[in-house]
Specification:
Elements: H1 2-19, H2 26-31, H3 52-55, H4 61-64, E1 72-73, E2 78-80, E3 86-88, E4 92-98, E5 103-106, E6 112-115, E7 118-128, E8 134-135, E9 142-149, E10 155-164, H5 169-176, E11 187-193, E12 205-210, E13 221-226, E14 230-232, H6 234-243, E15 260-262
Cofactor: Zn(2+)
Keywords: Lyase, Metal-binding, Signal, Zinc
Organism: Mastigocoleus testarum BC008
């Protein structure tokens, strides 16, 4: 037990140090991510992940970084005495953007995720096809990333793996509002959503210090990947895949990082 607590403290103190280097204007920068980058990057060919670092000096961490994301998660990772996640998401008007790299939903202020006693506000969430993280070398049809920020500018990303099964009603509301042609423009809807409906009831997770999975690949992210996937229908996966046949970065080396597994 003492070893588990020590691992938790060492890991999260290291994460906290790295994360506090994030800008205090992170909410603004995250919400602005729908704007077209001056440097065009993508997921295939010369603009793909293997060449991101060559596209701009600002993207150098994509190659030189030692704490990159996503990763392959070993489900037998060290079990640790981690505080339970506390999710307090309120309702939000649906605001959807096709930014050319994913479908992003900007969230109304006032919804929070508490990790290790620290509160992070939900800023936006977006999707990847197929999943970026793998579990025991297994990928999933899609992955949801919910991006949060705290008052110090540090941020945490909650990763939810999506598997084929029953239709998700909240996801269907989002899909119906997808702007197919108006890239970079936020489309507001009279629909109200609650991101809680995109989460499993079991919030046990894997946690590690990582990076953004897109350029500039900054290494200042608390990653919390939920152990239990959420069901979405095959049609819902295909709807996204028609717009984004592949928008997932390959897994990166864990190197010497701790990967911890919460256990109830």
């Amino acid at each position: 037990m003492r070893r588990r607590k020590l691992l938790r403290n060492l890991t999260w103190s290291g994460i906290g140090f790295a994360a506090t280097t994030a800008s205090l204007s992170f909410r603004a920068s995250v919400l602005a991510s729908n704007k077209t980058s001056k440097v065009h990057w993508g997921y295939i060919g010369e603009e793909g992940p293997g060449n991101w670092a060559k596209l701009s000096p600002e993207f150098s961490s994509c190659k030189s970084g030692r704490s990159q994301s996503p990763i392959n998660i070993d489900s037998s990772a060290i079990g640790a005495d981690l505080p339970e996640l506390e999710v307090n998401y309120g309702n939000s008007p649906l605001k959807v953007i096709n930014n050319g790299h994913t479908i992003q939903v900007n969230y109304e202020p006032g919804s929070f995720l508490t990790v290790d006693g620290e509160s992070y506000e939900l800023v936006q969430f977006h999707f990847h096809h197929p999943s970026e993280h793998k579990i025991d070398n297994e990928s999933f049809p899609m992955e949801l990333h919910l991006v949060h920020q705290n008052h110090q500018g540090a941020f945490a990303v909650l990763g939810v793996l999506l598997k084929q099964g029953e239709e998700n009603k909240t996801l269907e509301s989002i899909w119906k509002a997808i702007p197919n042609t108006q890239r970079g423009k936020e489309i507001s809807s009279d629909v109200t959503i609650n991101a809680t409906n995109l989460l499993p009831t079991d919030l046990n997770s894997y946690r590690y210090h990582g990076s953004l999975t897109t350029p500039p690949c900054s290494e200042n992210v608390h990653w919390i990947v939920l152990q239990k996937p959420v069901e979405v229908s095959n049609l819902q996966v295909q709807t996204f895949a028609e717009l984004f046949p592949m928008n997932a970065r390959p897994v990166q080396s864990l190197n010497r990082r701790f990967l911890l597994r919460s256990q109830s």
